[in-house]
Amino acid sequence: xxxxxxxxxxxxxxxxxxxxxxxxxxxxxxxxxxxxxxxxxxxxxxxxxxxxxxxxxxxxxxxxxxxxxxxxxxxxxxxxxxxxxxxxxxxxxxxxxxxxxxxxxxxxxxxxxxxxxxxxxxxxxxxxxxxxxxxxxxxxxxxxxxxxxxxxxxxxxxxxxxxxxxxxxxxxxxxxxxxxxxxxxxxxxxxxxxxxxxxxxxxxxxxxxxxxxxxxxxxxxxxxxxxxxxxxxxxxxxxxxxxxxxxxxxxxxxxxxxxxxxxxxxxxxxxxxxxxxxxxxxxxxxxxxxxxxxxxxxxxxxxxxxxxxxxxxxxxxxxxxxxxxxxxxxxxxxxxxxxxxxxxxxxxxxxxxxxxxxxxxxxxxxxxxxxxxxxxxxxxxxxxxxxxxxxxxxxxxxxxxxxxxxxxxxxxxxxxxxxxxxxxxxxxxxxxxxxxxxxxxxxxxxxxxxxxx
Length: 453
Fold this sequence. Notes:
Blueprint lengths: L3 H12 L13 H7 L6 E11 L2 E10 L1 E11 L15 H4 L15 E2 L2 E4 L2 E3 L11 E9 L4 E11 L2 E10 L10 E11 L3 E8 L4 E9 L14 E12 L4 E12 L6 H8 L10 E8 L4 E11 L2 E10 L5 E14 L6 H4 L1 H10 L18 E12 L4 E9 L2 E10 L5 H16 L9 E11 L1
Parallel strand pairs: 1-22
Antiparallel strand pairs: 1-2, 2-3, 3-7, 4-5, 5-6, 7-8, 8-9, 9-10, 10-11, 11-12, 12-13, 13-14, 14-15, 15-16, 16-17, 17-18, 18-19, 19-20, 20-21, 21-22
């Protein structure tokens, strides 16, 4: 479950109409949401609040060997007036992302004189209510010492460009007189709908980077995407550090059905058919890292509105090592019962009067059918297993007005770095003594509770 500040940043992207998914960094986001989820560590409590439409706060307290926590603040000149902020009203699918449906790329409107022309009406696009560029400021201080400060500056430069500056500063031990270690990551993003480019620079080893994504098919700047049923995207990334002579690159492909592919009306209009071309939404990805020889493929399927499946297979041509991971998510859906009204409580009296005088009261119409918005997604269960029989189970749901995440990890190795090191040390000791490593199973349980107002 993402934290409250990440949820507000997603609302900022939606409010400024910035497509975060049209990026190479999100090429495998669907499979990662289903397979690479993390379970909470020990016990953690989050208390958050959207104090004003432009200002949010969040406090975290946890126990991981020792008591630790964080304090976060966020400001945006774009108001979040229509964004649900209480934990009882926030849609759970916003906080617990699962199968991520790829949407057709949309080209931003044409920029003219600092405003956006949308037909005959001028609207703000990526701007605050005062006409200034949309800006977000976010800072998180992690305690206790040695403290770490993470800060983010996000600014919409134009309808197609966005600038972000991320700073991470860690203070040394209490008795150390050394200056804090700080790293600055600068990222400039350019998204036209048809393609996107990201340019990165990090002060850590003077690392330069580039990421690009290209969507095949009609250009959304000149053609409509209403009739598109599937989307094929290709992308690549490259990094280079002149200080450490570090070089890295990767490339990938993604094929995904669009929402129109499962809509009978759209499909019949486009292809003169009475059935859609795809019964279930699905996404296929292929990524390759040439320098390390790693090849990975994934297949994700949304079998029903409440069930999604995913699998991933990885292979290394240099070491002949392979990886197989499978996972699923299952949502529990309940319907809110209709609220009883005073008129409903007196229906028995009306029936009695109708038997004496039918013209006194007309028959009460049947209650309306339950609408889709009246359905409440209460909880989700995620399961993941790999070829080494490492199993993760995560339950996320709403208990009264609290958002709760509870997870457990089982397997011959831990999923947290500290437990993984101790488990590996135990396994090595048993192997040298002639024991069986298969009996050294690790188990960990964690709970995270969140409340926002």
